[in-house]
């Protein structure tokens, strides 16, 4: 059975939004990945987490938007199975990358004197690899488990890919909020003025990633609630995602849920002066390299 045909106007509008969102997500998050190394205010380990989050959002923008452009007319079994696979990969990689950032900020703010002992390079690399391992395991599971178990897969995915990382994020930011309402632990060999500046910087960085997490939740939640609707009402999951008006709603909120990949880089630009400086430094280096290449060719 094929999914119901959509109007040409809706298909063209959806395609335009997907292509625009996908191209912007690629350009913006690739820029973030390249600029991260120049952000001197971030510890080296924190750069891994920020780059991993940008990579997750870059792939989310590519895979999700390409999927919706190419597969909205498939049969219900194929459509739902492919949507489940895409959802597992994009959601898991982003949510656990966000939780890694939250954990890093939690350790940096609550235990600055022990940060380097707790966030070692080995632990950082393992934490960075974990979201991708879990995402690919989710893809494997969603692809090979029979279609009749789709509802159970979505229920397990909701717990593993959404509930668990959001509990980690909520715990970390709650603790960060409690600490930032008082004073940060004093660090050795710095003046009071330097300590106050460091406190403000850490507080602003934590707030920036908190905003990014909040935006992701706000954009993602409508899609998640609609995905959970069949599980709560015993409606077939294919009906919600393949039948008429319900399908238009599902496609619309799903596309909107991936807008965080486009918005987040702008949050970095607005909230992080060091990120703006890193972009300028990266552009200057690229300009110098191009200038040298042109001079050599002449």
From TrEMBL:
Chief place where the protein resides:
membrane
Q: Where is the G-protein coupled receptors family 1 profile domain?
A: 28-268
Query: What subcellular compartments does it reside in?
Result: Cell membrane
Give a GO cellular-component term.
plasma membrane
User: InterPro entries from the xrefs?
Assistant: GPCR_Rhodpsn, GPCR_Rhodpsn_7TM
What GO molecular function annotations does the UniProt record carry, in alphabetical order?
G protein-coupled receptor activity
- UniProt keywords, alphabetically: Cell membrane, G-protein coupled receptor, Glycoprotein, Membrane, Receptor, Transducer, Transmembrane, Transmembrane helix
Supply the Gene3D superfamilies for this chain: Rhodopsin 7-helix transmembrane proteins (1.20.1070.10)
Xref: Pfam families = 7tm_1 (PF00001)
| Superkingdom as given in the UniProt entry | Eukaryota
- What is the membrane topology listed in the Swiss-Prot or TrEMBL record? Multi-pass membrane protein
Chain ranges passing through the membrane: 14-36, 48-69, 84-103, 124-145, 151-174, 206-229, 249-270
Q: What is this protein called?
A: G-protein coupled receptors family 1 profile domain-containing protein
**What are the top taxonomic ranks of the organism?**
Eukaryota, Metazoa, Cnidaria, Anthozoa, Hexacorallia
